[in-house]
TrEMBL record:
Alphabetized UniProt keyword annotations: Isomerase, Manganese, Metal-binding
GO molecular function: isomerase activity; metal ion binding
Lineage: superkingdom: Bacteria
InterPro entries per the UniProt record, alphabetical: L-rhamnose_isomerase, Xyl_isomerase-like_sf
Protein name stated in the entry: Sugar isomerase
Length: 426
C-alpha cells in the first residue's frame, strides 16, 4: 500500500478552514511576543526522526505477544510501513536497521524502495544480546566484555559486519547497545569486564569509516539485574573518550534510574561535544518503551529545551541521530509511532518558543520566578497548529491519526498481508 498525495489532500479538506484560523490566531500571538513563527515552522518541517525496524510489529513481553494483524514480515514491508507514516507526518524520513534481523537480500532494491519513499538509512544497530543461528560462541555471559577472547572476537566481528552492511546502504553511524553485565554479586569482576569492553570497542572503532560515528548506549539494568557494564552516561562518556573523536554517547530516555535529571545529562554531554544520538520513548517505572510524551511530557519539554540550547550554542557537538525506541502491547504500532512523532514535534516546538535571551537575563538577575515563568509559558502554549502547518507545507496530513483511520490503512494492510502475521525482530 502507498498513500497518494491527493488522498492526503482529500482528508485535509474538511479541517483546512479551522486549521487556518487556529494557526493565524497562534502565529499572531506568538509574533507579538517576538517569536519568529516562520523560522519555527521551517525547523519543525526539517526535523526527521528515524523509525527502528523493530517498532513496526506489535510488541510484547515474556508473558505474551498479541498480533495487531497486517504486520510487516520483511525488510521491504517494514520500509513500506515507514513510508506510510512518513507520508502522513512528514517527520519519519529515516529508518534504523537492526542486524541481523534486517539484513537486506537485494541492496539495490532496498535502497531504491527507501529512496522512492524519501527515507534515509540512519544508524545501524548491532545485536550481541542474542545468540545467532549457527553462531560458534554464546553471549550468555556477555559479548564485548566476555572473559573468553573467542566470544569477544565474534562480537567485535559482528559489529564490523554491521558497519559493512550499513555502509552499503548509506548509513553513517553504528549504535552499540550491550546487555553485558551480571545478575548476582561476585559473578563478574567489574574492572575486567569494563577493560574488555573498552578494548573491544576500540577494535570496532578501528574499523569505522572516517565519516562514520559510533554511538555508545548506556542502561542501568535489564536484562542483567545486578550490574550492567555500561550502566550510565559517565561510563559511556568515558568509553567514547577512550575510543576517539568519532565515538559518542547515546541517551535513551528509558535508560535511567528513577528521577534522574536527564536534561542535565544532555546538557553536559553537548557541552563536551559528546552527545551523538537519542532514543525517544516514555516510561513510568523503567525501560517501559511507552509512547513518547504519554507519561512525562514536561520532562520531555525540559530535555528538548537543553537539546535546542545545545543545537544553538554547541558547535562542538555533532548533529544528532534521532530515533524512536518504543514498543507497545496494545496499540496499532503505526498509530503509536504517529503519536510519538507528534509528541516529539510538540516538545521541540515548545522548546523553540523559549526566549533564550530573556531566560539568560532572568538567570543573571537570579530572578528564579521569572525563569520558571519563561519555561512554563512556552510549555503551556498549545503549539499543535504550528505542527499541523509544518506538515501541511510539506504535503502531510493536518491530523495524521485521523487521516490514517479515514484512509483505512490498517484494513488495507490486513487485506494485503493477511491476519495472522508475525513481525520479525523483537
Ligand atoms: C535496549 O534496551 C536499547 O534501548 C536498544 O537501543 C534497543 O532497544 C535494542 O537494540 C533493540 O533491539
Ligand atoms: Zn535504545
Ligand atoms: Zn531500551
Amino acid at each position: 500500500m502507498k498513500i497518494e498525495q491527493n488522498h492526503i489532500q482529500d482528508t485535509n479538506k474538511s479541517g483546512l478552514q479551522s486549521h487556518k484560523e487556529n494557526f493565524d490566531f497562534l502565529a499572531n500571538n506568538l509574533s507579538k511576543k517576538g517569536a519568529n513563527v516562520e523560522a519555527i515552522v521551517s525547523k519543525l518541517k526539517d526535523f526527521q526522526v528515524a523509525i527502528p525496524s523493530w517498532a513496526l510489529g506489535a510488541g510484547g513481553t515474556r508473558f505474551g505477544r498479541f498480533s495487531f494483524y497486517g504486520e510487516p514480515s520483511s525488510l521491504e514491508q517494514k520500509i513500506q510501513d515507514i513510508g506510510l507514516i512518513h507520508s502522513l507526518t512528514q517527520t519519519a524520513g529515516a529508518v534504523s536497521l537492526h542486524i541481523p534481523w534486517d539484513i537486506p537480500q537485494d541492496y539495490a532494491a532496498v535502497k531504491d524502495l527507501a529512496n522512492g519513499l524519501n527515507i534515509k538509512f540512519d544508524a545501524v544497530n548491532s545485536n550481541t544480546f542474542q545468540d545467532q543461528k549457527d553462531a560458534k560462541e554464546t553471549y550468555k555471559y556477555g559479548s564485548l566484555s566476555n572473559t573468553s577472547e573467542a566470544v569477544r572476537q565474534q562480537a567485535i566481528q559482528h559489529n564490523l559486519d554491521v558497519i559493512n552492511i550499513g555502509n552499503k546502504l548509506g548509513s553513517k553511524s553504528l549504535t552499540v547497545w550491550l546487555a553485558d553485565g551480571s545478575c548476582f554479586p561476585g559473578q563478574t569482576n567489574f574492572q575486567t569486564a569494563l577493560q574488555h569492553t573498552e578494548n573491544s570497542l576500540k577494535d570496532i572503532y578501528k574499523g569505522l569509516p572516517d565519516d562514520w560515528s559510533m554511538l555508545i548506549e548506556y542502561k542501568p539494568y535489564e536484562p542483567n539485574f545486578y550490574s550492567t557494564v555500561i550502566q550510565d552516561w559517565g561510563t559511556s562518556f568515558m568509553l567514547a573518550n577512550a575510543c576517539g573523536e568519532k565515538a559518542y554517547s547515546l541517551v535513551d530516555l528509558g535508560h535511567h534510574l528513577p528521577n534522574s535529571n536527564i536534561e542535565q545529562i544532555v546538557s553536559v554531554l553537548m557541552l563536551k561535544g559528546k552527545l551523538g544520538g537519542f532514543h525517544f520513548n516514555d516510561s513510568k517505572y523503567g525501560d517501559d518503551d511507552l509512547t513518547v510524551g504519554s507519561i512525562k511530557p514536561y520532562a520531555l519539554f525540559l530535555i528538548f529545551n537543553e537539546l535546542v540550547y545545545g543545537m544553538q550554542n554547541n558547535p562542538q557537538n555533532p548533529d544528532l541521530a534521532w530515533m524512536i525506541d518504543a514498543s507497545h502491547n496494545v496499540k496499532d504500532p503505526l498509530e503509536d509511532l504517529i503519536q510519538s512523532l507528534e509528541a516529539i514535534q510538540e516538545a521541540y516546538a515548545k522548546a523553540l518558543l523559549v526566549d533564550q535571551a530573556e531566560l539568560k537575563a532572568a538567570q543573571l538577575n537570579n530572578d528564579v520566578v521569572k525563569c520558571q515563568e519563561i519555561l512554563q509559558d512556552a510549555y503551556r502554549t498549545d503549539v499543535r497548529p504550528l505542527l499541523a502547518e509544518a506538515r501541511r507545507l510539506a504535503g502531510g496530513a493536518l491530523s495524521p491519526i485521523n487521516a490514517y483511520r479515514a484512509l483505512g490503512v490498517r484494513d488495507t494492510l490486513i487485506e494485503e498481508r493477511g491476519k495472522h502475521t508475525v513481525a520479525t525482530g523483537l
